[in-house]
Amino acid sequence: MQGGMDGNPLAKGINPEDQEDFFIDISDGEEAHSTLSITVVGASGDLAKKKIFPALFALYYEDWLPENFVIFGYARTKLTDEELRNTISGTLTCRIDKRANCEDKMEQFLKRCFYHSGEYSSEEHFAELDSKLKEKEAGKRSNRLFYLSIPPNIFVDVVRCASRKASSAKGWTRVIVEKPFGRDSESSAELTRCLKKYLTEEQIFRIDHYLGKELVENLSVLRFSNLVFEPLWSRNYIRNVQFIFSEDFGTEGRGGYFDNYGIIRDIMQNHLLQILALFAMETPVSLDAEDIRNEKVKVLRSMKPLELEDVIIGQYKGHNKGGRTYPGYTDDSTVPSNSITPTFAAAALFINNARWDGVPFLMKAGKALHRKRAEIRVQFRHVPGNLYKRNFGTDLDKATNELVLRVQPDEAIYLKINNKVPGLGMRLDRSDLNLLYRARYPSEIPDAYERLLLDAIAGERRLFIRSDELDAAWSLFTPLLKELEAKKIAPELYPYGSRGPVGAHYLAAKYNVRWGDLGGDDD
Ligand SMILES: NC(=O)C1=CN([C@@H]2O[C@H](COP(=O)(O)OP(=O)(O)OC[C@H]3O[C@@H](n4cnc5c(N)ncnc54)[C@H](OP(=O)(O)O)[C@@H]3O)[C@@H](O)[C@H]2O)C=CC1
Ligand SMILES: O=C1O[C@H](COP(=O)(O)O)[C@@H](O)[C@H](O)[C@H]1O
């Protein structure tokens, strides 16, 4: 395997118009003689329909894909090429939908989409796929990307078959692996060991789609390119940092998967921890993938593994509201009725290094809560000897600055500041300096999967998880997960659509923290 197209046009700030040149320049001058084949394994599934095909179409629509490309769907379900195309065009909803010529572009895109039905552990079926790929590649140098959008228990079978029978003979072969990467340190290490029998680390692209979200990508820009923020980024000025994920729906349809994992593995150990590592890392030597990932690993290794006392867990229960019945987690037919799997968790984490000593990093993640939201909240310390102290009464917390990065929905960055209310008196007000993306930037925000697919095609690994990062992440959570399971700790129940278990408030209060998303002025 070798990387032909190194560097990401997006990351390097290259305009879409210059993109053809970009690919030609760095892919050894053979664009016209090379092809890109993308095989979506598990093409009949939910993620493929919801995210992967729409992202590929958006990339095609905006001319980010190279001139010669084909897309194959692979799964056991028997489908014709036409049926796959109908599924793609029928279910496709993405940001491009309302653009000019969308239908024509879709028609052209669908002509590049094909399907092969096969078993996941059959080398013979992957050899058949290889023949079809070769036919489309027509003797050109071929780069092949496999996207494993399948349950993890079949990752290794697919990688074995694909690497033995369908890897590229003349170009690179890369594999995007969806989460979950194991259930704990041991199973994750075993998965990595098995994958590495067939692939090098450079060929494995472990995806965490939160790293592809616009605001997460912007986190480093905000910090490292603004003098007003970088000097404040430490225990000297920051009192606590909060990483919050909430969904206003339950496990609907994914209960079978979810019950085996729970919210800590589903959201905290990966999405929230990855954001935390990006937030807290030291300045990397450069923007190179290895330099960034080196710094993230250092942060993760500086953290104290979670203990039971640092965590509270919850599970949503059914209830009636406004004449509507909301199901509880265990009402889901794919979930055991006595399940104690957490659908909510809050945790306090600490980084034992000079920059962050003593600063609580709080995480909160839950399903079936009162709203859908993902955000990073940075609460700053009090102003020492604040001249206006008496204007805030006894509640000094109301006078502290807070920086909020709203990852979704309605992306925004805002800073809560104290301001004088205009008028003759001296009344202070907490106001927002607000950068609301939809007001500032007219263009739609690309979906995370677009960015990540493009990165994988370009061989840019910055936003993918390296195996040592994964080990470090699991080391933090594995002892806690084992203890929760061994002791069969029952989650605190919370009503579907509520703000979650009260325990989350007590946990925060233990560290003198208030959740910024609840009870505040932007709640
Ligand atoms: N859906 C989502 O929102 C998200 C999903 N993911 C991850 O992405 C991957 C794909 O997710 P999703 O599309 O929801 O998964 P699905 O359960 O829809 O599975 C994808 C395809 O895999 C095949 N499959 C399913 N179960 C089995 C099985 N037990 N044995 C063999 N094949 C099976 C089916 O295809 P066929 O029967 O045709 O072979 C199915 O269409 C998973 O690893 C998931 O954890 C990650 C983030 C979000
Ligand atoms: O990885 C996952 O993410 C989704 C939430 O993703 P988002 O981009 O819609 O915020 C979550 O619903 C799912 O449980 C989890 O596996």
TrEMBL record:
<comment type="function">
    <text>Catalyzes the rate-limiting step of the oxidative pentose-phosphate pathway, which represents a route for the dissimilation of carbohydrates besides glycolysis. The main function of this enzyme is to provide reducing power (NADPH) and pentose phosphates for fatty acid and nucleic acid synthesis which are involved in membrane synthesis and cell division.</text>
</comment>
<protein>
    <recommendedName>
        <fullName>Glucose-6-phosphate 1-dehydrogenase</fullName>
        <ecNumber>1.1.1.49</ecNumber>
    </recommendedName>
</protein>
<dbReference type="InterPro" id="IPR019796">
    <property type="entry name" value="G6P_DH_AS"/>
</dbReference>
<dbReference type="InterPro" id="IPR022675">
    <property type="entry name" value="G6P_DH_C"/>
</dbReference>
<dbReference type="InterPro" id="IPR001282">
    <property type="entry name" value="G6P_DH"/>
</dbReference>
<keyword id="KW-0521">NADP</keyword>
<feature type="domain" description="Glucose-6-phosphate dehydrogenase C-terminal">
    <location>
        <begin position="221"/>
        <end position="515"/>
    </location>
</feature>
<dbReference type="InterPro" id="IPR022674">
    <property type="entry name" value="G6P_DH_NAD-bd"/>
</dbReference>
<keyword id="KW-0560">Oxidoreductase</keyword>
<dbReference type="InterPro" id="IPR036291">
    <property type="entry name" value="NAD(P)-bd_dom_sf"/>
</dbReference>
<keyword id="KW-0119">Carbohydrate metabolism</keyword>
<keyword id="KW-0313">Glucose metabolism</keyword>
<comment type="pathway">
    <text>Carbohydrate degradation; pentose phosphate pathway; D-ribulose 5-phosphate from D-glucose 6-phosphate (oxidative stage): step 1/3.</text>
</comment>
<feature type="domain" description="Glucose-6-phosphate dehydrogenase NAD-binding">
    <location>
        <begin position="40"/>
        <end position="218"/>
    </location>
</feature>
<dbReference type="Pfam" id="PF00479">
    <property type="entry name" value="G6PD_N"/>
</dbReference>
<dbReference type="Pfam" id="PF02781">
    <property type="entry name" value="G6PD_C"/>
</dbReference>
<comment type="similarity">
    <text>Belongs to the glucose-6-phosphate dehydrogenase family.</text>
</comment>
